[in-house]
Amino acid sequence: MKYYTVLILLFTLPVMAVQWEALPTTPPIPTTNPQTEAKIELGKTLFFDPRISRTGTISCNSCHNILLGGDDGRSVSIADGKLGKRNTPTIWNSAFISALFWDGKANSFEEHAKYSLVDSTKMDMVNWQSVIDRLQAIPGYRTMFVASFTNGKITVNNIAKAIATYERTLITPNSPYDRYVIGDKKALTEQQIIGMKLFAKIGCSSCHSKPNFSGPQLLGEGWLKKFPKIIGSDYDTQYNLLADTGRYQFTNRESDKHLWRVPTLRNITLTAPYFHNGSVATLTEAVLIMAKTQLEIELTPNQVQNIVAFLNSLTGEFPEQTMPSLPKVLGISVLTNDIYGNK
Ligand code: HEC
Ligand code: HEC
Predict the structure, then answer these.
(1) Are 39 and 169 in contact (CB under 8 A)?
(2) CA of 221 to the centre of ligand 2 (A)
(3) What pLDDT digit, counting tens, does each position of 92-140 carry?
(4) For ligand 2, is residue 263 a contact (CB within 6 Å)?
(5) Closest atom of ligand 2 to CA, residue 271
(6) 262 in Cβ contact with 96 (< 8 Å)
(7) Distance CA 184, CA 196 (A)
(8) Model confidence over 281-336: pLDDT tens digits?
(9) Does ligand 2 have an atom closer than 6 angstroms to the CB of 135?
(10) Residue of 111, 171, 113 whose CA lies nearest to 316
(11) Which of 58, 71, 198, 274 has its CB 3.0 to 4.6 Å from that of 286, i.e. a possible disulfide?
(12) How far is the centre of ligand 1, averaged over its atoms, from the C-alpha of 64 (Å)?
């Protein structure tokens, strides 16, 4: 072998080792909750309905604005004047994520939706029964549950299942990156291709892998990594990276301190600010931090620009959303004199 062949091999091997995959147009669907048109429509209606929040003013879409990037653009979420603890993640493509929540606490949309309804920093309903009572008082919902489920009942499990089917439709395929991977070599700019190779070469893809850049789907376990992996950089204090101990908060296992699920990088340019505490305002800074804290690499400004250019190519096509018409109640508000209205 000529020496330059060896050199080329050495340079391309780490890049070739990465398997670039386009985003599938359908996500994994659990057999216990198949997608049906009626259920998706019901889920979407619930997703946009503020009446399933305590104050009657917040819907899932208030924070996960799917007309934008599926988040709220805030560092941490806010509901009814109360600040949440963490940044709102996008729900676009979260059907592909390895575990839900920053700390990987929830394994499925079905499990997660139930908790959002009664979380005091989210929908803040007093309990699940209060959600059921409100929906029961709306005739249009009774009809939709009958059309969606064989038992036809308004139960918290059915509410969660319906919302989950809608969430599984929120996929953004056909980004420039996807088109490049399936063979359209003109889909990426030269700079983006350089950034893509660098992303693989320095090891970003060891964590942000698979079509969603969030690692393999390991239901029940999640694809969780330490952040910061290398503790001690100036960023720890500058961005308060160590205040929230992540998964440790609910397992109390020492080894789970600062363990976080690997988030998607799809549509990442639309979901600033960044990280679990939303403390980092720009994507450029987020990339610098990742290189330093996860890989112990100082990137040059040029290298950062190339990686950011590549990340730009991960913005996909957003399927057009039409607003549902919420089922009405005539002559009375379901919130009037509601015993759940004041907590
Ligand atoms: C007040 C803002 C707010 C509201 C309202 C809200 N969420 Fe969230 N959502 C968040 C925050 C913040 C997180 C991350 C929490 C964490 O990791 O600790 C989150 C996480 C999620 C996730 C996990 C995404 C991921 O990538 O891990 C899903 C799915 C989700 N919410 C769906 C919903 C649904 C469905 C509703 C309505 C029933 C809802 N949310 C209402 C703020 C909100
Ligand atoms: C060792 C695993 C690992 C490596 C390597 C890694 N990341 Fe990350 N990345 C994570 C984790 C975990 C998070 C979530 C951190 C948190 O909870 O705030 C994250 C978050 C991010 C975010 C912010 C996402 C958001 O929605 O706020 C970006 C952007 C990012 N990574 C890009 C990169 C880039 C670019 C590289 C290579 C320079 C890289 N990552 C290398 C594990 C890793």
Answers:
(1) no
(2) 18
(3) 999 999 888 999 888 888 888 888 999 989 999 989 999 999 999 999 9
(4) yes
(5) 26
(6) no
(7) 15
(8) 999 999 999 999 999 999 999 999 999 999 999 999 999 999 999 999 999 888 87
(9) no
(10) 171
(11) 274
(12) 7
